[in-house]
Every structure is written in structure tokens, then in C-alpha cells.
Design goal:
mainly alpha, Formate dehydrogenase/DMSO reductase fold, 11 helices, about 0% strand, globular, disordered N terminus
Length: about 325
């Protein structure tokens, strides 16, 4: 931090947190990583269930998007690195207690997996597609033969990636707002919710949109529970964590968090999706876009606010 922002256990009233400059790359990377994890999870799950034809947007179209999301997220992370030429040390320095190390290896595995899924579905949307080399046709046949095995592997690493996006913050013990075990499950559920919203946007099937509206409604309920549980945990903990919670309970992040993330990003989409489920006609694009914006803002606000909480010595 460039300046002291907590005085005697309370926020320094002379400092406006909104003047602090937060790099956009990390929140964007976490958002895209969680979104990609959710898309891969749903694709693999419904393939295992044998419902590829029933939910084509989730199992086929979305898989074409995932590699681009991961590459864009990794590029954002690369831009944030201070010593960009030494990123490879994450793979040569093995530290089991390092969240960045686990994340780097998870991304190294799941990125090619996402490319395999995209390759398996490319002929669905481009029927005349031809691979330039015969060995690629052989690889395609191999992975098609063991598609369900690949799906199980994908679910495993998608869950790790989704949780990791929250653990990356929670491992910072010096920031009380981030130092909570809730962030891992919260970011995982948020990533799956944004993935469900994107599938709703991509789908042309009324049945598929209806299914993912129901899934997203459940995920939003879980997300609201985790947010409530997180603040209850802070308020029942040490003074610095109470102060961290007060950033959102009357502090400078109160309005933007409760109005834009919880209100417009979770509660309003949940109401609209409930209306759709009970057959009240609602344009599916509205709640889906609100959920995506809310998921992005959640990461930006948590990232920014976390830098304004610290332990007192």
C-alpha cells in the first residue's frame, strides 16, 4: 500500500479509497478464469449425463469460447507481472504452499484440455473443417473414443480452477478482508453462475435456457448465502476483520457492493429468472447480462477493498 489507511484500528477518514489505483488485470483474470471453469464444468457434466444433443450450447458451442477466455485471462495476468520475462519460474520453483504455483500448473493442464474440447466440437459448426495433418485426425478419434474419461478429468480441474480464483486472494494473510475460507467457494459458485448466464445468452433452445435459468437461480441462492456467511464470520471475529466488514456495512464500498453486486447482480436476476420459470415472459438476455456484470464487479470490488484492510501491529 502506498499510504497508511487505517489509524488506531479504524479507517483513516482523510483518505478516499476510491482514489487508490487498482490494476484491472487481476480481477479480469479471476473473472475470466471462473467463467471458463464454469463453462467447462457444465459441458463435461452434461456430456457425462449423455445430454449433448439436449443442451448443445453448454456442451458444444460454449467449448469453442473457453480457450479464448483462458488465453485472454492469462494475457491479463501476464500484463500485471512486474518481471514478465521470469514468469516461467512458476513452473521451475515448486512450492506446495504457493497458490500461484498451484494455479499456474492447473492452468497449464486445463488450457490444452479446453482446446481439445473446442477441437472436438469444431466440425459441429464448421462441417467442412479439415485438419491439416493426419495425426490430428487420429487424435480427434482418440479423444472422441474416450470422451467421458476426458469429461471426468475436465470436471476435476474445472473445480480446482474455480476454487483457485478465490484462494488466490484468501492466501494473503495480511489482508483481513481476503483472509477468509469463504472466498474459494464464493468465487467458484460465482464463476458457475456467470457460466450459466453466458450459456443462456448463447443458447437458441427454449428448453436449455429454461434449465440454466433454474440452475442459475440455485447458484444465486448459494452465492447470497456465502456472502451473508462471510460477513457474519467477519463480524464475529477480531477487530480488524470487523473493520474490514465495515467497508461494506456503512463504509465506502457499501453502495456499490449492495446495489450493483448484490442488488442488480444477484437479487434482480434471481427475481427475473423466477418469473421466467413460472412462465411470466421475461427477455432472457436481461438477467444473464446482469449476472455477468455482477460477477465481474464482485471481483473488482473485493480486489480493491481488500487493499484497504490490514492487520494492526
Amino acid at each position: 500500500m502506498r499510504e497508511e489507511i487505517i489509524v488506531s484500528g479504524r479507517m483513516n477518514p482523510n483518505i478516499d479509497p476510491h482514489l487508490h489505483i487498482w490494476h484491472w488485470q487481476i480481477p479480469l483474470y479471476l473473472f475470466l478464469g471462473g467463467l471458463a471453469a464454469g463453462l467447462l464444468f457444465f459441458a463435461a457434466y452434461f456430456i457425462i449425463q449423455g445430454k449433448e444433443d439436449k443442451y448443445p450450447a453448454a456442451t458444444k458451442l460454449a467449448t469453442l469460447v473457453v480457450p479464448f477466455l483462458l488465453i485472454l485471462g492469462l494475457f491479463a495476468l501476464f500484463l500485471d507481472l512486474k518481471h514478465k520475462l521470469y514468469f516461467w519460474r512458476l513452473y521451475t520453483t515448486i512450492r506446495l504452499e504457493s497458490p500461484m504455483g498451484w494455479g499456474a500448473w492447473t492452468l497449464m493442464i486445463i488450457t490444452p484440455i479446453s482446446m481439445i474440447w473446442a477441437a472436438l466440437n469444431v466440425r459441429t459448426f464448421f462441417p467442412n473443417w479439415k485438419w491439416p495433418f493426419k495425426f490430428l485426425d487420429d487424435l480427434e478419434s482418440f479423444f472422441l473414443k474416450y470422451k467421458k474419461v476426458l469429461a471426468w478429468v475436465t470436471i476435476f480441474y474445472a473445480l480446482i480452477l474455480g476454487v483457485y480464483t478465490g484462494i488466490l486472494f484468501s492466501a494473503f494473510n495480511a489482508r483481513p478482508l481476503w483472509n477468509t475460507s469463504i472466498l474459494g467457494p464464493l468465487f467458484l459458485v460465482s464463476g458457475m453462475s456467470t457460466a450459466a448466464a453466458l450459456i443462456i445468452l448463447l443458447s437458441r433452445s427454449k428448453e436449455e435456457r429454461f434449465m440454466f435459468a433454474k440452475i442459475d437461480l440455485v447458484l444465486i441462492g448459494i452465492e447470497l448465502f456465502l456472502i451473508t456467511h462471510m460477513f457474519m464470520g467477519f463480524l464475529a471475529s477480531t477487530q480488524v476483520q470487523i473493520e474490514a466488514a465495515r467497508l461494506f456495512l456503512g463504509g465506502p464500498y457499501t453502495a456499490v457492493f449492495w446495489v450493483f453486486v448484490v442488488g442488480l447482480g444477484l437479487v434482480v436476476p434471481a427475481i427475473l429468472e423466477f418469473f421466467e420459470i413460472i412462465k411470466i415472459k421475461i427477455p432472457a438476455v436481461i438477467p444473464a447480462i446482469l449476472v455477468l456484470i455482477g460477477g465481474l464487479l464482485l471481483r473488482f470490488i473485493i480486489a480493491n477493498a481488500g487493499q484497504f484492510s490490514r492487520w494492526l501491529y
